[in-house]
Amino acid sequence: MAQIIFLTGGARSGKSRLAEELATRRGTPLGYLATGSAGDGEMAERIARHRERRGDAWTTIEEPLALAESLAAHDGRFAAILVDCVTLWLSNLLFSLDDPARVLKEVELLTRTFSSLRTPLIIVSNEVGMGIVPENRLARQFRDLAGEANERIAAAADEVYVTFSGLPLRLK
Amino acid sequence: MAQIIFLTGGARSGKSRLAEELATRRGTPLGYLATGSAGDGEMAERIARHRERRGDAWTTIEEPLALAESLAAHDGRFAAILVDCVTLWLSNLLFSLDDPARVLKEVELLTRTFSSLRTPLIIVSNEVGMGIVPENRLARQFRDLAGEANERIAAAADEVYVTFSGLPLRLK
Amino acid sequence: MAQIIFLTGGARSGKSRLAEELATRRGTPLGYLATGSAGDGEMAERIARHRERRGDAWTTIEEPLALAESLAAHDGRFAAILVDCVTLWLSNLLFSLDDPARVLKEVELLTRTFSSLRTPLIIVSNEVGMGIVPENRLARQFRDLAGEANERIAAAADEVYVTFSGLPLRLK
C-alpha cells in the first residue's frame, strides 16, 4: 500500500515547492498530475513556471475531473505522483456536477482508491477557510466543500503538513 | 475552578467534531450552547446536522447574546458545555450593540466568569483574519474584533488548539 | 551578524504584541520602523494605540518604501528594531512601482541587507492567503506577492513564528 502525503496551506505558501522536494526523494521518473488546465492565462503562466522549475524527470498529466481513475491508470509507472491541486479539482467538479454532495462522492472515491495504489502520492491542497465569511453564496459553498474535502483526504493520508511562509508544520 | 478549552480554526476545519469528542470524554449529560439561531436557512441546516451527529446525551441551549449569564445559569448541570461559536456570538453582539468596544466588554465579562464556573467549557471559534484585507469597512471591523476576542479568550483558557483539515495543533 | 526574527499571522492575532515582547528582551533603546503612515484614519488610530502601549524606550521611524536603506542608516543605534509591517511595505511598493517583479527585487535587497546588519530585527508580516480566492485581480496579485515575499524573508530569517489567537507556533 503506497504512502499518501497531504500538504495544505495558503496561496503561495511554499506548498508546491515542498511537494516537489518530497516527490524528488522518491526517485525518478515522477508524475505531475495537474488538475488545472492551461486554458486561462493566469493558470498557463503558473503551469509554465512550475514546469520550468521541475525539469526533465517529470511527466505532466492533465486531468481536471477523473482524478481517481487517472491515478489508477498511471499506477506503477512513476516513483511518485504529485497531485496539484485539490481545490482546483473540486472547483472543476463543482462546475461540472453543480452539487457539493456529488463532489464529495468523488472525494470518497479518491480516498477509497488510496488503499489499492502502489505509487506514493503527494497531494497539494489549499486552506481557503481562514478569511472573513464571503458575501457570495457560491464562495461560501465552495469554502465549505473545500474544508470537508481537505478533512476527508487528511484523514485518509499517512502524513499531513500545513505550510506558512514556505515552512511546514506537521499535523499527522 | 473548571477547565476551559478553546478551539479555533478555519471554516469546516473539523473544530466542532473535535470539540464534541473533547466534551464526550467528560461524561454525560452534555450541554450544547448554540449562539446562532435556526432563523436563517443555512444555520438551520447546520444546527440540524450537528444535532443529528451528537445524539441523546446532549441538551441544546440557544443563547445569542447573554453568554456569560447563560453559562452561569446552567453551571453544575452538565459534565461539560460546548459553546459553538464565538464568532456568531460576536456578530450578534455587534449587530445589537453597534460598537466593538462594548462587544469587547462582553468578552471581558465572559472571561471573568471562567474562574467562578464548575462546569468545564469547550469553546469553539473561527480564524477570520488570514485572508486578504476586506474592502468592506464593516468586515474589517468584525475581523479586528474577532481577532481581539480570540486573543483574550485564548489568554484566559487552560488549553488552546487550532485545527487544519480536521487535525489539531496545540497552542497552549 | 545580527539575529533576524520573522513573525507572521492573521490580522489581530497578537503578532505586534509578541514582537514588542521579543524586542524588549534585547534591552534599550528600541526602534519601531513603521511602514504605514498616519495619513489614513484607521492607520493613525493604530499607530497611536501602538505608541501608547510601547512607551518611552521606543523611537518611531516612518519609512514607507526604502526599508533596506533605512535599516542600514539606523544600524547600530538601537538594541533592536521592530519592522511593522511587511505587507504594508509591499502594498506601498506595489502602488509606487506598479510591478510585482520590481517589488520582489526590493524584497531581495532587504534580505541581502540582513547579513551586514549589527542590530537585531523583529519583522512582522501578515498571512493573507488562507481565505477564498479574491474576485478582484489586484487583490489576487497582492496575495501572491505577499506569499512570495513572506517565503523569501522567512527563508533568510533565523527564527520564524506564526501566531493564532495571540499564541505563537515556532516554524523555524
UniProtKB/TrEMBL annotation, chains A, B, C:
What class does this enzyme belong to in the EC scheme? transferase
| GO biological process entries | cobalamin biosynthetic process
Catalytic residues, per the record, are 50
As recorded in UniProt, its EC number(s) are: 2.7.1.156, 2.7.7.62
User: Which reaction is recorded as catalysed by this protein?
Assistant: adenosylcob(III)inamide phosphate + GTP + H(+) = adenosylcob(III)inamide-GDP + diphosphate; adenosylcob(III)inamide + ATP = adenosylcob(III)inamide phosphate + ADP + H(+); adenosylcob(III)inamide + GTP = adenosylcob(III)inamide phosphate + GDP + H(+)
InterPro entries under this entry? CobU/CobP, P-loop_NTPase
The keyword Kinase is annotated on this UniProt entry: yes
For GTP, which residues are the binding ones? 9-16, 34-36, 51-54, 62, 84
**What domain of life is recorded for the organism?**
Bacteria
The yes or no answer to whether the keyword Lipoprotein is present is no
Query: What pathway or pathways are given for this protein in its record?
Result: Cofactor biosynthesis; adenosylcobalamin biosynthesis; adenosylcobalamin from cob(II)yrinate a,c-diamide: step 5/7; Cofactor biosynthesis; adenosylcobalamin biosynthesis; adenosylcobalamin from cob(II)yrinate a,c-diamide: step 6/7
Any one GO molecular function term: cobinamide phosphate guanylyltransferase activity
CDD domains linked to this entry: CobU (cd00544)
Q: Which UniProt keywords apply?
A: ATP-binding, Cobalamin biosynthesis, GTP-binding, Kinase, Nucleotide-binding, Nucleotidyltransferase, Transferase
Matching SUPFAM superfamilies = P-loop containing nucleoside triphosphate hydrolases (SSF52540)
Which family does the UniProt entry place this protein in? Belongs to the CobU/CobP family.
Q: What does this protein do?
A: Catalyzes ATP-dependent phosphorylation of adenosylcobinamide and addition of GMP to adenosylcobinamide phosphate.
The name this protein carries in UniProt is Adenosylcobinamide kinase
The UniProt gene name for this protein comes to cobU
